[in-house]
């Protein structure tokens, strides 16, 4: 009887731990994630709006944050760029695409945190060969910090969204 009980405890504990292990090994990447890793960051971010408009909001959030991460890495890796070139284009994308994507994304903070974790894993698996390791890590660190800070501010974010007439999912 004791052996059966020990076996049952073992099986149940595996079932509790298994989903976390599986998610870590198989993060949710949108279709074409490996091929997209070779795209310019602006092309990644451009994917977001059409996806939002066709009801594929979570994919839109993934590509927006993947593009943002890659672009920030490139800007950090090449700080001597002409400010009217890539830095200005990045700012433009953030100002035009960012509000629509973030309006959706911040409606469900736990889902956003999972998406950010997937973006970080995607970037780790398919690194950008055009940036230095230090620049990539700096940008990843910033995205990890965002994931942590929004997790700490869930209630505040929900209150502000509600006060502004935005939906919390």
Unreliable spans: 2-26
Percent of residues in helices comes to over 70%
Structural class computed from helices and strand pairing: mainly alpha
Number of helices: 10
Q: Please provide the count of β strands.
A: 0
Radius of gyration: 19 Å
* Apparent shape: globular
Largest sheet: none
Overall pLDDT = 86
Order of helices and strands: HHHHHHHHHH
Summary, kept brief:
It contains 10 helices and no strands.
Structure notes:
With 169 residues, this protein is an all-alpha fold. Helices cover 75% and strands 0% of the residues. It has helices at 2-25, 33-36, 41-46, 48-53, 57-77, 86-96, 98-105, 109-125, 133-152, 154-163. Helix 8 (109-125) runs antiparallel to helix 9. It is globular.
Describe how the helices and strands are arranged.
Layout (H helix, E strand, L loop, with lengths): L1 H24 L7 H4 L4 H6 L1 H6 L3 H21 L8 H11 L1 H8 L3 H17 L7 H20 L1 H10 L6
Helix pairs in contact: 5-6, 5-7, 5-8, 5-9, 8-9
Salient structural properties:
mainly alpha, 10 helices, 169 residues
């Amino acid at each position: 009887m004791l052996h059966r009980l020990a076996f049952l405890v073992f099986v149940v504990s595996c079932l509790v731990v298994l989903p976390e292990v599986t998610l870590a090994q198989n993060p949710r990447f949108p279709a074409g994630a490996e091929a997209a890793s070779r795209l310019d960051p602006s092309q990644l971010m451009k994917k977001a709006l059409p996806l939002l408009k066709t009801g594929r909001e979570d994919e839109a959030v993934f590509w927006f944050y993947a593009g943002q991460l890659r672009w920030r890495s490139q800007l950090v890796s090449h700080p001597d760029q002409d400010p009217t070139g890539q830095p200005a284009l990045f700012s433009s994308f953030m100002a035009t695409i960012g509000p629509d994507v973030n309006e959706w994304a911040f409606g469900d903070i736990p889902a956003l945190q999972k998406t950010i974790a997937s973006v970080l894993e995607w970037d780790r698996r398919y690194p950008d060969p055009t940036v230095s390791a230090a620049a990539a890590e700096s940008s990843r660190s910033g995205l990890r910090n965002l994931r942590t800070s929004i997790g700490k501010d869930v209630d505040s974010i929900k209150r502000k969204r509600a006060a502004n007439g935005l939906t919390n999912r």
